[in-house]
Design brief:
This protein folds into two domains: about 290 residues, Hypothetical protein af1432 (Orthogonal Bundle); about 130 residues, Growth Hormone, Chain: A (Up-down Bundle). The protein is built from 22 helices and nine strands. The chain is globular. About 50% of the residues lie in helices and about 10% in strands. The strands form three sheets. A four-stranded mixed β-sheet has the order 3-4-7-8. It has a three-stranded antiparallel β-sheet with strand order 5-9-6. The longest helix has 22 residues. It is α+β, with helices and mostly antiparallel strands.
């Protein structure tokens, strides 16, 4: 038995014989790079403890996936077909849990905006392309890489496995909420994991397989789980200092590309290849070569660049001299014009020194009464479930907001925070 000591789940065990494929995948180059990819990007600018990695998170999701399957397997008074389906696809679920985030790169969101390629596309390419990961998957079973990709795309025939890893109540979401809460030191994301697992149920709702919670025992933990997600977005993921740092990183990439086009700066070769070719299949090796250490190295070099904008932005990020949020007063158009004029007087181009941020998310949606949004992914991808169901003794699923006044009140009300950031010396003028 291979044992990992995890700050969140304590002991995470993987059997060296029956689960050998997991250990082989962990040892691949593609997975080991996740040790150098932080789960929360630049959130450590706000919460110094937020240094945990996607490597740790991925192991945590494997651990929770095992616990979910084991719990469902012990339930009485449920259709045996669900237990059989989970048992037959157990290794598929564990492998997908391990690899679900393997496509994330350094400073994922800023990099995605720069390259115009979503991390999900890189994930699929790593699983199905010319990689160590694919070789191991195919050695385990012919066609296995395609199956794993299908689960990630949410198109696999096993709806139970898809929902286990991608739904409102999935093992990925549960792990990152608890893990992010612990490492940031913010208590907002904490909830009773043990009781949630104890209340787990599975059943059919409108012809679709759904994981849910026991109606009599699970209402409170379902509410806690949704509210934990809500508060983590408001207070951690959308924190103004974190968002300011992310926006500056985005502007650094933008300026680097402009200067590169003018022949005035050298981009990291791997990043340049990705931007020029804009293809996962042609640039996968380049993508895998990138790391946060690589990017930070260039930011240090660029902080001494002769271009004043580039050197200033990089120096600000290195020294945490972030742009500050400014409270909008009066008419938005008039106020924005006033800010732009102040920037001009100080020789600061608005394109790089007036940063606008629209942070949006939703802690809970009920698509029975709202229009389902179009997927940002492939046409072959399906949307993740956005409801939590409570199952009664007869196996009937009741949508959470129909039983909870709290959830009913916030249902379909997304989080939307609009902000404007400017340098501190300009903000002091207002």
């Amino acid at each position: 038995m291979k044992t990992f000591r995890d700050p969140v789940h304590n002991i995470v065990s993987i059997d060296k014989q029956s689960e050998k494929v997991l250990l082989d995948l962990i040892d691949t180059r593609e997975f080991q790079r996740l040790r150098h990819t932080r789960q929360l990007g630049l959130s450590s600018f706000t919460y110094p403890g937020a240094e945990h990695t996607r490597f740790m998170h991925s192991l945590g999701v494997v651990h929770l996936t095992k616990r979910f399957i084991d719990k469902i397997s012990t339930l009485k008074n449920i259709d045996q077909k669900y237990i059989d389906e989970l048992h037959d696809n157990r290794m598929l679920a564990l492998v997908t849990a391990l690899l679900h985030d393997i496509g994330h790169g350094p400073f994922s969101h800023a990099l995605e905006k720069t390259t115009k390629i979503k991390h999900e596309s890189w994930t699929i390419e790593i699983i199905t392309g010319d990689t160590e990961v694919k070789k191991i998957l195919e050695y385990h079973r012919s066609g296995f890489s395609h199956e794993v990709a299908e689960v990630i795309r949410r198109t696999h025939k096993s709806k139970a496995i898809v929902k286990l890893l991608s739904s409102q109540l999935d093992t990925d979401r549960i792990d990152y909420l608890i893990r992010d809460s612990k490492f940031t030191g913010a208590g907002y994301g904490a909830f009773d994991l043990e009781w949630l697992i104890n209340c787990l149920r599975i059943g059919e709702v409108n012809g679709d397989t759904e994981f849910g919670l026991d109606l009599n025992k699970g209402l409170s933990i379902a509410e806690d789980f949704v509210m934990a997600r809500y508060y983590m977005y408001v207070n951690v993921y959308f924190h103004r200092a974190t968002r300011s740092a992310e926006l500056i990183m985005d502007k650094i990439f933008q300026r680097a590309i402009e200067l590169n086009n003018l022949g005035k700066i050298d981009l990291p070769e791997d990043l340049a290849e990705i931007i020029i070719k804009s293809s996962t299949s042609k640039t996968l090796t380049n993508y895998l070569n990138l790391s946060e250490n690589t990017i930070w190295h260039y930011i240090v070099l660029w902080s001494k660049h002769e271009d004043n904008i580039m050197s200033d932005l990089c120096t600000r990020l290195l020294n945490r001299k972030l742009f500050k949020e400014i409270q909008i007063e009066g008419n938005l158009i008039d106020f924005t014009e006033k800010v732009i004029n102040s920037l001009k007087e100080h020789g600061l181009p608005r394109e790089y020194y007036l940063l606008t941020d629209e942070a949006t998310s939703s802690s809970y949606k009920d698509h029975y009464i709202t229009q389902k949004p179009k997927s940002e992914g492939s046409e072959n991808e399906k949307e993740a479930s956005e409801q939590i169901f409570l199952f009664d003794k007869s196996g009937n699923g009741i949508e959470l907001s129909n039983k909870s006044k709290i959830i009913n009140q916030i249902r379909n009300e997304g989080i939307k925070i609009d902000r404007m950031f400017i340098p501190e010396q300009i903000r002091r003028l207002f």
